[in-house]
């Protein structure tokens, strides 16, 4: 009897071979701990930071619908309700489109921080260039966040971890700007003046962004200094003013990565995309969404009919301003000229059909992959030379630089548009510069922030209440995750 | 016997028959009392014994019959009848690593036998649990052929995978019940309470034990053939607007907003196209099943093969399902004390599928497509704008090309060695090997501007293959003995090793020649560019377990058992890898006590209870590790090419550990009036702690919105399910010709979330497009309850609007004819903080009723089941201004006093479409599931054609559903814990009329 029990127990023990059986690693995977071991890893990590630039459409579109010059449009007055509500300035902390801006930009910050926290892991010549670009991009994402949300949590030395939302406070706007400035100063110092690869940013882009940040910080002389540096390099010019360039092609495929481009976000139509992950698209989601509904005709492709310029902005151009018809498509006129057909979606007075479309970012005929509405390849000109000139003009007027250089910069932009030079000065000059920014940069995502930073938003935007609407609410979900650690923005 | 020397020694022979049925009994054991001399009856029930003398006593024993004592007199031939023994016929129940007589079972266990399965004749074995077993809720994922069903045992306890463990012939089976041929199933046992603790970390959602049929010993080869042919059709079409009504309502919609209607002149539209009529068709289903079984004295066998072919009621063969199975079961005694059983199963399934779920599904398009458009319009350019999903469903069907094939071989070898008195050692090796292939072709096609299905430039073929393997090794040792006639002890100790691994390889390529399915293969496609992708993954899951069980019975009426299992698995990090799962059960057969009152009616009364801890580990593996995602990060170079990078994947959670279920059950079994009435009642409570919640939303500052990243899996909550289950059955032979068998079961579920760590609530589900998530998990509420606005009628005039708090925050200022939302927090404004619980997708009560009657050669049976108290969200109406509408809109608000339920139509800004109780309906239903009538020919008639049994039958499935719900089918559900009960226009379960035949020869 005992013998048998012994046999049994032995059998069990032999077969069991202890818990070694379950000590395994997942097949074919790399852990975050085994990364940043070579230059190639740093490059792969850098690509991942640039990746979130493709999701920048969410920030641009939200800023556009918030502005005075754009109606949301879409299929109906409730299509993408988050934008419709922002357009009417009745948005609340529950807003998916606001949350997207929060999530996508913080995702960019996270990926940049991943490389920055591993900056000492491996040494190789030229590593600073990678780190400089990472810090430029972190600054770009944080700059979006501070403009949309005001105070935000920051963590300069590493990635956010789960639980940080309970302990890291929302830093003051000044602190956030200081952090952004710090990143950009590092970027300017450590970046080459020419891009390492054409899609990557260089020192001038960093300087231009730094100048822009200074403008928002109301550090006008510092802004003027950085922006003037960019202008004085001679590396950039207004498109259409050199060689056989034609101004009309600035926003065509031909005008991409041109001499006017200081910082351009690259898009492509060679990779498919779906609605389940818009931020995964390497196409410009804004473009498909901006297309004319049910469009059938030449030049353009159809889209979802969002981002509709108002009659007010159309009429703000003088009739000899070349920019009017290059920036805004009058669909009735176009249809009668070309025989194109189209559908009208949202007809709401406040947010609906205007008869005008954002021509700069309409989908052009091309062979992009499905879903074709999400994979339009139009690059987004994040900072173009005209913007640099206008910012420099503004900084000079408001700072100690004076009206003379300001008028010079302003008139370069006006002249290209077929307009005569202005000779005004002082407040009048400033107003002209503001107006020029509106006309030059319509549909590019700048208008709302320009109005807010110059305290003109409440006068221009229906339903806008200052200071409440200077920033957007922190998404409701985030407030709940942070429990009592963060306070909601005033008025929301 | 050799000592007997005088001449009275003689030879005795005879036959043994069943006293009731009067048929010969083979294999009856015959023993001469007080000696070890004996024999058994042969196939014809005959026996012969030598060397007997008058006065010897023969004992005739046979399982299920009373032992017969016969004293040898001067006769030489004895024709004997054995009486069946009800007590002994007591069914045995498979309880995992052992069997137990039903009488002594102390856990809550339900069983569905082959008789029930035969009557139900389900296409999918899971359906046999619906309405037949208390506490089990089966919800199909839709009516398309081959659709799997979700099985939920005693409510919903986890936010992850709620699937019960399926054990096929003792071996963990991951293939889905759909791949098993229902005719091969002998019985299905469901372990509902702590008794499942023998399966430790696998048992938390209950255990379904499937035992397949085997042969019988001492039986000549017996052939069984069954076949049926049936026709399926939809049970329902939704009432929609015809073209004229559509035209009128669309124009009114625009007029109400002061806008121009895109439809213009609507005269002469007539009835237009009835898209539902166009897509639904009558589709056939056919089944053949052949088996042969039998056995000799030491061996039994069964071989079977089956074929099932089913087409869809939408799309016909474009949504077909084929299943072929073959099975071999062998059971043999290698030696007196060594038995070997083996089972080999082959499954082959072929699937073709249409887009049958949610936005963009064929039925969704049939509901929303404008009736003014003709069936032959493939490209909607120039037609009314129907948004970017709605396309011609017929075109969509025509352009759908896919096929999936699964080949699976599974089996096991099970040895039992009785190596010593009362001791046996069993070893079992089981395996599954499955290969799944999928091929899909997307042709170049233009459905019209913006349509999401458009492929304008190039076609695409997707192909992939997945191989899944697993093996299980079980070794367990059982000691069974009885001491002093009153102490019965069974001790089992064992171990189990399980490994599941596999890999997937897939790719896509453009440039399929001739834009044709015929040539759709990566090899023949010629495309270049970024859409030509390839991908792969591999996984390796391992578990090691030790377990022990002690069962002790005192005086045959005090029953105790205790179990302990230790599991370790590589799903979790080293520190959290090991879990211990104890449980105990007890029972008392009160009716056996001397002091139990002598009540004639009561045959049996047992009280039982169980308590234990079980685990659940069904979450993605390696969630504790911080790994890198490849290919998720990509950017674009300046010439429009893709550059890929590497980025952190899913946010890791190093602390992740098992989900723990504490189960408590108390109940009784009562049998009355000669066991004719059987009553089982249970109260149960399941407390799930450390709920594993995959994709638990966490703060966006951790970068979870980045491509390839995502929310971590977190142990983040507790849920309690409790309720009462009652099973009542009655069976009797009223006369020699008429017998009845009927049963009724009812279960209640009360589900409540008791804790969530780190968040106030968790959201899920989907409603409309771009709306906040409608389902929530929140403390104090049932899991997945609906969270939205409460309505209180319709504003009849401007004065009512003015008197009500502003609804502007919902998207638009209210106007007369709009829904009036309730200011639940009374803060003078209607906004998102006014949302409340507006429905519960979990039924309060589920009921099942079965009846079968036999009258002479006729048999009749019916099954029905019901859910009471669950809510369903109507989410198949696209919130788009120009799509077709359900007919209830004809009763819309058109002026003061016209209606107080259906809001006005408008193409202007309105808050009428936000998620409110207007879209929530009572999903209670009663379904008449099966009605069947059969006729069995008399054996005398059949003898001539050498057939022992021939039955013809007619059966209708899913006959009628009594419900107030306005969608296709109140039973369909996604099965997601948070997000269930939302109807995306589910493909309805078909009504099926069948003619069938079974024969035995």
From TrEMBL, chain A:
<comment type="similarity">
    <text>Belongs to the SusD family.</text>
</comment>
<dbReference type="InterPro" id="IPR012944">
    <property type="entry name" value="SusD_RagB_dom"/>
</dbReference>
<feature type="signal peptide">
    <location>
        <begin position="1"/>
        <end position="18"/>
    </location>
</feature>
<dbReference type="InterPro" id="IPR033985">
    <property type="entry name" value="SusD-like_N"/>
</dbReference>
<keyword id="KW-0472">Membrane</keyword>
<dbReference type="Pfam" id="PF07980">
    <property type="entry name" value="SusD_RagB"/>
</dbReference>
<feature type="domain" description="RagB/SusD">
    <location>
        <begin position="345"/>
        <end position="456"/>
    </location>
</feature>
<dbReference type="Pfam" id="PF14322">
    <property type="entry name" value="SusD-like_3"/>
</dbReference>
<keyword id="KW-0732">Signal</keyword>
<dbReference type="InterPro" id="IPR011990">
    <property type="entry name" value="TPR-like_helical_dom_sf"/>
</dbReference>
<protein>
    <submittedName>
        <fullName>RagB/SusD family nutrient uptake outer membrane protein</fullName>
    </submittedName>
</protein>
<keyword id="KW-0998">Cell outer membrane</keyword>
<feature type="domain" description="SusD-like N-terminal">
    <location>
        <begin position="21"/>
        <end position="215"/>
    </location>
</feature>
<dbReference type="GO" id="GO:0009279">
    <property type="term" value="C:cell outer membrane"/>
</dbReference>
